[in-house]
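TA notes, week 10

Several of you asked for a full example with nothing omitted. So below is the full record: structure tokens for the whole chain, then the designed sequence directly under it. When grading your own attempts, check the secondary structure regions first.
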């Protein structure tokens, strides 16, 4: 029997990571934060002095990326080349670099097999930008989570401040708009809902409301009903 997959795609700051973890916790599924892979690759490239438009070097780096995902009291700890970089990869600088790296076709292909490997029993919740359109096209439920650029910038600003990072709301908003444009217009796997995706706008919704909506859709899927028993 095919391992069920729920995909949650959307732009930066839409809350897809939080929702993916909450859904996975509810169902007892594994989680794939695909964006973390691109952030880890971007950070590794910066550390090794590779240009973010050097596709040859980045393809090789992606294929041999020394990454570990470890559990830390229910939260993911990301280890790059033996060092905990869980918080470092969440900076705006690394996020912007990851968006540039993700636009390179051969880099995306190099990371594709790694993403497929996360599909393990009993199931997987995968969040990203092309989980439903490219990586897991046979997912039993596809969600596209969006929100206004202003709402996403405010959420990101609060996240950074809460974690002790310095932040400028106007800069974050400009970065999100630029990233949206780059992600939606890239030639390979542009950011867009899958044709069979459920589109949810979280601009005026809290986390609990979005979670409830996603779980309600999940309950409708025959392959997922056993996990709600």
């Amino acid at each position: 029997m095919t391992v069920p997959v729920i995909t949650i795609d959307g732009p930066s700051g839409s809350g897809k990571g939080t929702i993916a973890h909450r859904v996975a916790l509810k169902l007892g599924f594994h989680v794939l934060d695909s964006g973390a892979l691109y952030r880890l690759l971007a950070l590794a490239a910066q550390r090794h002095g590779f240009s973010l438009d050097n596709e040859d070097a980045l393809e090789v780096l992606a294929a041999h990326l020394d990454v570990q995902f470890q559990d830390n009291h229910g939260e993911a700890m990301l280890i790059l080349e033996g060092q905990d970089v869980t918080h470092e990869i969440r900076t705006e600088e690394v996020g912007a670099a990851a968006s540039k790296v993700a636009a390179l076709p051969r880099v995306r292909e190099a990371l594709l097999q790694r993403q497929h490997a996360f599909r393990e029993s009993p199931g997987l919740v995968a969040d990203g930008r092309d989980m439903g359109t490219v990586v897991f096209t046979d997912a039993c439920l596809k969600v596209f989570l969006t929100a206004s650029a202003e709402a996403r910038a405010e959420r990101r600003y609060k996240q950074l401040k809460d974690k002790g990072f310095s932040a400028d709301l106007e800069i974050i908003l400009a970065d999100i708009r630029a990233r949206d444009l780059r992600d939606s217009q890239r030639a390979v796997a542009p950011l867009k809902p899958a044709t069979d995706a459920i589109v949810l706008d979280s601009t005026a919704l809290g986390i609990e409301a979005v979670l409830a909506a996603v779980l309600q859709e999940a309950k409708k899927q025959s392959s997922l009903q056993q996990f709600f028993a």
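Residues 26 and 150 are 30 Å apart (CA to CA). Use that as a sanity check on your answer.
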